[in-house]
């Protein structure tokens, strides 16, 4: 015999369509978003991990001052490594970008062709896909450096440049102003040796088992190579940001998405509990009648669990379909918008299915079952009388009779529905946190860029490059003459140009990533850096002080990048400069620390472009474009993600507030009907019930703001300290808080309009159905 209760299911679904649609949408959107991100992320991480073997990624790379001859290579390979040429040219292109050009690789760090064909002719080039997209370059376009013109034949990804760091010490990569490319060996031969960077990749004969062993092997190797030749740089794979940054970031993203899932699950638990309890309240007479007619509690539990589980199941299935189709592609596009990744294949992620589907459904089942078990434990008579008290009812909280009637009524509505309002507060707190993050991040980057522009040390920092023949220890007399010639050649007539010394040392903080600290030695009474000329002055930049909580009197220890030599400094002042992690001191003091001549200098600070120094003597130029690289790239990479976060936050806000406001109106349906009988208009009733919810929503928004600001300050500093090199100061534009309140109230206005329509539809005879 069929269960007649099944006939009620379609009617219940129709009458409670709004509630079940919200439950469905919450499951659908959450599972779609999280499963899409986890599937895309897991597939990307798997593809990234495969690249190490598939494309034979180097164990490290080193840069020498000059090309190694066969004898030197043989000597270096005695350290149980194999060296591979990986020479390149950093070519300044006419589109104001820098393109690092390699000859096609066939042995190590081999090329992944994403689209088109590999270059085969003298004037053809394979261009990094991400660089091409960011600069609106397509296959068939031409690219010129003013002397050479290349035709793009294919879009590629180089596995040792999955993240486009031009220099391993950069705070952030810049995929808009910097890119990598390959040409044929014949085409690469056009560049003169003076333009080449003598870079070599190495592979160990016996690869290290882990990073700890890799570190020991790298230190031994570095010492051995440094004893044989002049090292310009030495970067083992585990320290190479161009390789490892991508993998670390993708794994971190998955952790953040799982945290998002767990928070949403907590909110869903509240929602399921309240909606189930409300269903019992609405169906009290029916339940009492059914219990009195002989239906057991377990039969009713099964009946009232059917629709929530069915709707949740459909939401879960469709959410997974969304996750594995459109959302997976969308999330993958976010990764491809940030990194130069190779091709990937979608992998079935059993863990994602467990976390996003099985656990939420089990949670839904358990919560619904427990709530129903508790609510249905009352006697049939109590259900018929709608008496849900389990204990002696407490006396109502006394309210002053001096308060106007409407005010007392609203307070009573709030007190009677405090559980709903607490859930609304939790939902708003979470939704606003996401919205705050989405709105704050672009604002912080814009402020950082503006702050850097307004507080430049100068318009140009020219770093000089001393020729090798001026520092040859084996030919001291010749080197001294060459040094004198060099110093004469790098004198400038540029007005306002000021000599300075510059060095770079690494941090030595335990448990933190190694960062490069720039040491500036400036002239007494410098026009660019207002610094005390007293001997022993060491001022930390504001960025350095903020990141590592430095204050005057603190002592810091720094070390040479590829040596064990350490230096200790005592901070005497904090200098207001956010452009770098830096120390400032008098030039003579800096030269003395590094045993240099007191008149030695490394470059010029200038507000005017220097044109009377030969380009071969200029190592690099630090200008506004170089300093704002981090904000430019993060804006480019995170724009799509922030829009997704903002959209999801608003959806969560709307769903939570709508569902719980709807329940509140339904719960008070009989009271609303009675007030209509007493002559109150729909507008007046709305002032009683909707105004109460409006007040609590506004209060929740206002209370959440200081909590979110405090939480975001902590989270932001953690992210900048533990996850990134460099520093961006936390900045809160007050208009963001205004926007959040406006967006919250604007979203709630939609909910209030829907609830007003619901109040209008409650008939007067509703009160007459329950006259007891």
Automatic annotation (TrEMBL):
The species is Hominifimenecus microfluidus
Instruction: List, for all copies, the residue spans of the domain called ABC3 transporter permease C-terminal.
Output: 259-371, 645-763
Q: Which domain of life is it from?
A: Bacteria
Chief site of localization: membrane
Which residues are listed as membrane-spanning?
20-40, 255-274, 307-327, 347-372, 418-441, 644-665, 686-707, 727-754
Specify the protein's topology with respect to the membrane: Multi-pass membrane protein
Q: Where is the signal peptide?
A: none
A Gene Ontology cellular component where this protein is annotated is: plasma membrane
Task: Note the Pfam families from the entry.
Answer: FtsX
The name on file for this protein is: ABC transporter permease
Q: Where in the cell is it found?
A: Cell membrane
